[in-house]
């Protein structure tokens, strides 16, 4: 007989020989002992972990000619000596039919199977069908099998092996017993490889076996296939193949993780040049950027897990890290050393960046450039400050972010007051703000007397009618151009005079006053009551100008959007509210400072959170002192 690969040569023939699937083998052996045999089984899980192997062992145990408890067969394991066991092991048993469902997936093949299932087995106790890759069967073929699965003959047993159980219809899964297989643990794979190496006369060190087990990624068959390839390429020393870690890395096209440890140490030291030099060495040696990125992702994942598990470089983690990290003890220590250099948030950002880089390499032309860019991003991420620290420094008035960023405590706002008249103006630029790009926010350059005013983020608590009302962040009081107010003389803030096109328009603006504000509030409340929220927002942003018996509403909408936002129903409601005051309304499209006049504060709706905030004495005092306005109010109260 010709050479047989290790995965076939050392295929388990008994339940006890299967590694890492005790939860399945123990259950099946108990079922055999109690004679509780199901008519349908689904074995699902990772590739190469023993699904089809256990199906064959179960078929041997079911058709074994020796009874359980006899001298030849004391347990539920197959005897391995009777004709049925030998034929099933050789693959030529008449009553055990193994079908590749990936090629026999149509309804015609399943109909033939269903018709043949009606006949009793030719010799053995059960007629057994093993369907490998069962998820490939079409829905129509599964439907043709449903009746047989629901009411099968007492001599039929179906076994379906699949890597994608979710693709099997629920109607089929509900008629079968489902066993979910686990990925084989690293220690179990290393133990199996060590035994096979000793049996084959292979001289393999522990580092080589660990690399082979890690390359298997939970699959025993994958690890054995790589080991077969490594033995074929290994040098012969005294007639025995010698496996070492360096030879296996070269065979798999990987690099030692010590290289990535050196890269992460350079990232920690903010040494971009060293990172690029290391990347150049790896790429110049012929390593693939995609393979390097994949290995970097796996290494960073190990570092994140080591940080979460609290592993120490000495390896005394109490077993938690070893359970989460299926890598060798030496690699666990290396991951722990790197994890000690960074925080959990930084390692998470590094892993996310390298994952994105790995995804991009699949469809980029210049893979080297994108891999180098991904490594440089790691250095840049190390330089970034958390946004929480920046916002905390702004709200707390600190000049530099601190390590901790606690929330601002609730309570009244202490507004600073100048105590002595200034001798010379000192301009203080505001700190960086995330709202800098907002052109609708007021700009300011500083305040005289050396006192700088930054936007105030206030958290207030008021009590109204026995209920606690919280008007929480962000109640922002944006200060316009501040003016010194020396005590006790109050100096009125300069008012920017609007540019008026003509005396007639100026008279209209001056005549607006409180009447225009009242009319605007009435319109907004009428639209809100009618569930016309978009139109209410548009009127809230508009300028109302009373000129004689006419009210001109200068909106900020274009002529095209005017009829869309303020639909005929909303316009009818607004005109009705204006007509109740004995006036008529004219809608104007397009915002115009010349017509709209000076910018006014938004009209707060009655009973809204904004109205309650404006009624608070502390807010009113701040508005009076700084000639400011409340721009945004968010109601963070609960439903109660």
Quick recap:
46% of the residues lie in helices and 12% in strands.
Major sheet strand order: 2-3-4-1-5
Number of E-type strands: 15
How many discrete structural domains? 4
Question: Mean pLDDT score, rounded?
Answer: 78
Going by CATH, the homologous superfamily of the largest domain would be: P-loop containing nucleotide triphosphate hydrolases
**Oligomeric state of shown chains:** single chain
Radius of gyration: 39 Å
Helix share of residues? Answer: 40-55%
- Give the low-confidence spans: 397-512, 592-599
How many H/I helical runs? Answer: 26
Give the distance, in angstroms, between the N- and C-terminal Cα atoms: 81 Å
Task: Please give a structural write-up.
The chain is an alpha/beta fold and 640 residues long. The chain has four domains: 175 residues, Rossmann fold; 67 residues, Helicase, Ruva Protein, domain 3, CATH 1.10.8; 127 residues, Up-down Bundle (Zinc Finger, Delta Prime, domain 3), CATH 1.20.272; 95 residues. 46% of the residues lie in helices and 12% in strands. The chain contains 26 helices and 15 strands. The strands form four sheets. A five-stranded parallel beta sheet has the order 2-3-4-1-5, covered by helices on one side. Strands 9, 10, 14 and 15 form a four-stranded antiparallel beta sheet that branches. Strands 6-8-7 form a three-stranded mixed beta sheet. The termini are far apart.
